[in-house]
Design goal:
This protein is α/β, with parallel strands linked by helices. The protein is built from six helices and nine strands.
C-alpha cells in the first residue's frame, strides 16, 4: 500500500555501517531523505548514491540529512560507503521490513529465487515525521528526480 503525502512515516529499525541501531525517532527534528536502493556495488545504485554524495552540500543547506537504505548487511554497506567515499549514512535493511513498509521490494530479483531487494524509492520526511515527498519506481534502472527532491525541501 503506497504511502501518502501528509501521513506519518512508518517506524523502522535499521543498522548503520558500525552496526548501531537507527530508528525513525532517532532522525526526527531535522528533515530526512530516505533513499532506498536495490544493492551495493551495482551500477545504478552507485550512480544514485554518488549523486547524493556530490549534492550533499545542497541538502545540508536545506537542513536535510540523507540516508541510503539497502538490504545488504552492514559490512557490505560499509565497504560500499568507503569505496565510493559516501559522506552520509548507509543503513542496512537486511530484514526487508522497512523496504516493504515504504516503497516495496522486487521479489526474486535477477530471477534468483528468494533474493528480494528494495525498490529504488525516495521519501522525504519532515522534522515531525510526516511524509512530504514520495517517489517509487518499478524499474531498478531509473534514477530519482533529484531536482524534485531538492525543490520539496526548499
Amino acid at each position: 500500500m503506497p504511502l501518502d503525502i501528509g501521513q506519518n512515516a512508518p517506524d523502522f529499525l535499521l543498522y548503520d555501517t558500525d552496526k548501531n541501531p537507527v530508528t525513525l525517532k532517532d532522525i526526527l527534528g531535522k528533515k530526512a531523505v530516505l533513499a532506498f536502493f536495490p544493492g551495493a556495488f551495482t551500477s545504478g545504485c552507485t550512480k544514485e548514491m554518488c549523486t547524493f554524495r556530490d549534492q550533499l552540500d545542497l541538502f545540508n543547506k536545506l537542513d536535510a540529512q540523507v540516508f541510503g537504505i539497502c538490504v545488504d548487511g552492514p559490512a557490505a554497506n560499509k565497504a560500499f560507503m568507503e569505496h565510493n567515499k559516501l559522506n552520509f549514512s548507509v543503513l542496512s535493511d537486511f530484514t526487508r521490513e522497512a523496504s516493504k513498509k515504504y516503497g516495496g521490494v522486487h521479489e526474486n530479483f535477477w530471477d534468483v529465487k528468494g533474493y528480494d531487494v528494495a525498490k529504488r524509492s525516495v521519501f522525504v520526511i519532515d522534522e515531525n515525521g510526516k511524509i512530504i515527498y514520495s517517489w517509487i519506481t518499478d524499474n531498478p534502472g531509473d534514477q530519482p528526480p533529484f531536482d524534485e527532491i531538492r525543490d520539496v525541501l526548499k
